[in-house]
Amino acid sequence: MTERVNRQVPSSTYRLQFSAEQTFADGVALLDYLDGLGVGALYASPLLESGAGSNHGYDVVDPTRVSVERGGELGRKDLVAALRERGLGLLLDIVPNHVGVEVPLANPWWWDVLARGRGSAHADKFDIDWAAGPILLPVLGEDEAAALDALTLSADRTELRYYEHTFPVAAGTGEGSAREVHERQHYRLVSWKRGAAELTYRRFFDVSTLAAVRVEDPAVFDAAHAEVLRWVEAGEVDGIRVDHPDGLSDPGAYLRRLRAAIGPDRWLLVEKILGLGEELPASWPVDGTTGYEALREICGVFVDPAGAGLLTQFAAEHVGVKESAHTGEHRARREVASTILAAEVRRIAGVAAAAVAGVPSEGLVDAVAELLCGFPVYRSYLPEGRESLDTAVAVARTHRPDLAGTLAALHAAMVADPHGELATRVQQTSGMVMAKGVEDTAFYRWTRFVALNEVGGAPERFGVSPAEFHAAAAAREASTPATMTTLSTHDTKRSEDVRARLAALSEMPAEWIDVVRRWSARRPLPDRSLELLAWQCLVGAWPIPADRMSAYLTKASKEAKLVTSHVDAVAAVDEAVAAWAGDVLSDPDLVAEIEAFVARIEGAGRSNSLGQKLLQLAGPGVPDIYQGTEFFEYSLVDPDNRRPVDFAARRATLARIDEGELPEVGPDGAAKLLVTATAARLRRYRPELFAGYRALPASGQAAEHAVAFARGTAPLLGPGRHATGMVAVATRLPVGLAARGGWGDTVLPLPDGAGDWHDMVTDIPVDGSAPRLADLLRRYPVALLVRPS
After folding, report:
1. Which has the closest alpha carbon to 746: 697, 695, 699?
2. Measured between alpha carbons, how far is residue 395 from residues 257, 326, 406, 567 in Å?
3. Burial (Cβ within 10 Å: 0-12, 13-18, ≥19) of residue 224
4. Fewest CB atoms within 10 Å of the CB: 25, 286, 311, 484?
5. 764 with 758: CB under 8 angstroms?
């Protein structure tokens, strides 16, 4: 699919979240540390002008200029120059699907469209249903009539205002009362509650403040990308990461146009969430994804499948409902299709009614909703991915056999015109239904074992076997060696270290069940599935202050939509959820129990953290290090995972490591920094060691607790003498390993029968060609072995 030699592919990346609090100047000041850490490129969050105070940059308001808050054009140029001086690359995150419209005046395109309507020079940039009448803007309070009475006009009558919100008044329409002026505009201000069902412009998922952009139009593509492509042309960008390509009307066509614009030598990645067994469309000229499939595999190999039975039984008992993950996901998808994404479903039904001859209007909305909920993956890319559409129709027909005729008609129309409006809108929207229904609803409801409830995850599959892990890694090396791999991102539900600690629970389910029963009786929550989530996240992120835990649970309860929600908040529930963390942390006896339990699992959690970090950094693909995760870092979902990072502590620790310190595997995270720096430096300065892939089985009574692989130059992977190479080995299921008394006589036979291996983590030679794992992993639960070059 791609060839490493044709791309400017770094050895690894380090993700930084730029904002007003972490500017380009701050990035420049960090480069000596990142260089010393061994990373190959800076992976920058979006740099274009975004909403004021945005801590992520995905709400771009003006794609024609760089963010002033983050440092402006001069700051960006300084950052690029500093990167080049150190020989570091730059991977840039771009957002082609949507722009921010929360503050209309901040977005010149949107402001002009509101002022001039369809006559605006920017009208074609947005996906607006002009036939539906004025653009509906869901910004008013719940009592729409009272809110309209609160409208005012600016002194010069050129702006309409609703408290802090400001909107343009079309030329020649400013006479009369504010309400009279409002009725003459190209837009209508409506209650925020009407957005879900009546919105007349396409948006990012259900976020009405992010309006979709029609980059399928070449003129719009050029306007939206001109500034970024100027940087590429100047040689200031080495790679592009495309945000949310599934929201585009034709991702393949977009990516082919982008590839042509950036040239063949730039690294190109897509934020594509792959389902189990799904591969990127062959026609996409990209190097890979942002790595969520690797996250599932790497983290999953540290989960004990033997824990599935008890935890499944307990979850059903505690919640009072025995429901499979698949059933729960479909139910959640159907719910979001009928509520928060109802406007999108109705728009598709309208397209279908006009485009499909003979389709009955009765049940058409239901048929569209069922079709959207039936996809086994996020979307198809007709004519590619036809089998996913076929599956969606079959699933929908199973749930609603009475709609079989309508579903068949929709299917036939999409296949006959794969680039038509019906096929386009169905495929754009199925990904929205999957993301909102599964990631942002079902994953907060089906809480049997939330270490698996991750973006790109498969909660119904309890872990990943070593065989599956090795097969996936070998396939990655063979097909997409330049894809990204990741463990934590700005979007993960729980950081890699929270998941690593929770993985230990899979090895001790009975003990975990016992404490949850006791703790839940003592400090209950309004929803039983939320209780399971809360206790797992509390011990996973421990110690965590009440304000962070409270904010997380408030978000989680509203995403689950079982006893409260963003749209229909229940005050009593919200108050109980918000108070829970404070109540728990003010109960000294309970806190003592929690601390004692965390002490039981934190060592195993650290072992898992080091293991998954090494497997990612040494394995196929280009590993990304999310900011701060070179230490143990116990964060929950955004915005918790976007908190400031203590880089001073990390600098000081790296300096001590470089002076020869071999830190203990303790809470300060120094051991994780040691593993990260060792592997990242080796990748950067010995790239020949990171080609090929070969699973290395251990031998002995505890062999199942080791996961190891070899990589290196071609001779390593077959018969040959004097081969150089690398071996990575990690400990899995550490609780069970300790229970059986350790490694015993288990050995790891090394490739080529060589006896001159050296562990780069501890900087000591390896004893023989088949070292005892008790000796090899005496100091750390991981080892990174290299032969002399």
Report:
1. 699
2. 34, 12, 14, 29
3. buried
4. 25
5. yes
Helices (H) and strands (E) in the chain, counts: 27, 24
Q: What is the pLDDT of residues 461-507, one digit of tens each?
A: 999 999 999 999 999 999 999 999 999 999 999 999 999 999 999 99
- State the amino acid at position 683 in one-letter form: R
DSSP for 470-530, written as a single string:
HHHHHHHHHH-TT-EE-S--TT-SB-HHHHHHHHGGGG-HHHHHHHHHHHHHHS--SSHHH
167 — phi, psi (to 5°)?
-135, 150
Q: Using CA atoms, how far apart are residues 691 and 105, in angstroms rounded to an integer?
A: 51
The CA distance from 742 to 733, in Å, is 11
Could you report the per-residue pLDDT of 27-78, keeping only the tens digit for each?
999 999 999 999 999 999 999 999 999 999 999 999 999 999 999 999 999 9
Q: Which of 85, 372, 394, 84 is nearest to 246 (CA)?
A: 372
Q: Taking a C-beta distance cutoff of 8 angstroms, is the pair 466, 301 a contact?
A: yes
Planar angle of CA 620, 626, 632, nearest 5 degrees: 100
Residue that the structure tokens 């939509």 belong to: 561
Return the amino acid letter for 235. Answer: G
What is the per-residue DSSP string for 628-644?
TTTS----BSTTGGGSP
Query: Is the CB of residue 583 less than 8 Å from the CB of residue 714?
Result: no
Contacts of 434 (CB under 8 A, 6+ apart): 333, 375, 377, 378, 379
In whole angstroms, give the CA distance from residue 471 to residue 450: 25
Amino acid at 74: L
Euclidean distance between CA atoms 281 and 285, whole angstroms: 9
For tokens 């159907």, the residue is: 334
Find the helix packing angle between 670-685 and 588-618, rounded to 10°: 10
Q: How many residues are there in the chain?
A: 789
| Sign of torsion over alpha carbons 601, 604, 606, 609 | negative
CA neighbours within 13 Å on the CB side: how many for 382? 23
Q: Tell me the three state secondary structure of residue 431.
A: helix
DSSP string, 180-229: HHHTTSSEEEEEGGGHHHH--B-EETTEEEEEEB-TTSHHHHHHHHHHHH
